[in-house]
Amino acid sequence: MTSAVIIVLREVLEAVLIICMLLASSSALGLRFRWLPPALLAGLAGALIYAVFLEDISMAFEGFGQEIVNAVLLLLITLLLLAHNILAMREFKAPQIARLPALSLLILSATIAMAIVREGSEIYLYVYSYGVVAGDMTSVLAGGAIGTGIGFSLGTFIYYGLRTLSARHCLLFSSIMALIIGAGMSSQAALFLAQADLVPAAEPLWDTSALVAESSLMGELLQAVIGYEASPIAAQVGMFAGALLLSLVAMAIGIFSVRNLPARAGATQTQRSHE
Questions:
Q1: Crossing angle, helix 65-93 and helix 101-126, to 10 degrees?
Q2: Helices (H), 127-166
Q3: Is the overall model pTM greater than 0.90, yes or no?
Q4: Tens-place pLDDT, residues 103-118
């Protein structure tokens, strides 16, 4: 049962961190949560479809279909988190002036849906493989329930922690979280691409398994948060660093794209008052 707790907690935590962070960011952007139920339903439906057709997907691309699809999902989520950071920093620089509500709703919904597809399909496959096929459903369900409860508890703590901040600081810390999570997902994507022979699978650059083993609870939690790998290859380190840099650039773009907006808005209000 312990393994079920750890595995489900890792998968749930990856999705919950994104969901709770984006919910807090949504509030800071002045958006209601009406977009959330459709995003959750789309994600659950996508996860179920992915899991059901996994055998066909795995056979695609010369047997590397699952690795390629997982890598694509992770990279798409990373790009959506970059887009979120641009919008968040626009609002950070010019509150209530630089909002793009329609685009924000699209980005938030797509990010959450894809995160659920990715993590939900992994949980479904784990429950099916070890619960149904292996006949250990009681342990899997009990451990899974505990892992899910812990994951949602941590997510709730993070959400309300962000909500206690001012709107601007909430957006700043949400963007930092998105930066770290996106970099970790890019690193995971690099590993999948290496498994599919699409990037060089060189020797590991280092090995920290003696300090934090990947199979330990701390290792699983770090993998969920930052994509921790005890023995990463060069492609993973490069993708992690590249995603960090791109996210910082995205935040800078968000800030500088509205540097003249407050002045123009103030000028417009002054002109209207004179009229």
A1: 150
A2: 137-163
A3: no
A4: 999 999 999 999 999 8
Kindly give, in sequence order, each residue whose CB lies less than 8 Å from that of residue 211, ignoring residues fewer than 6 positions away: none
Place of tokens 């393994």: 3
Distance separating alpha carbons of residues 265 and 84, to the nearest angstrom: 23
CA atoms within 13 A on the CB side of 178: 35
Q: Is 136 helix (H, G, I), strand (E, B) or coil?
A: coil
pLDDT at 262 over 60: no
223, two tokens:
């993998």
Angle at 95 between CA 243 and CA 173, to 5 degrees: 40
Structural contact between residues 232 and 186, judged by C-beta atoms closer than 8 angstroms: no
Distance CA 31, CA 46 (A): 25
d(CA 52, CA 39): 20
Q: Which of 119, 130, 142 is nearest to 2 (CA)?
A: 142
Calculated CA dihedral for residues 58, 63, 69, 71, nearest 10 degrees: 130
Instruction: Note the helical H segments in 94-136.
Output: 101-126
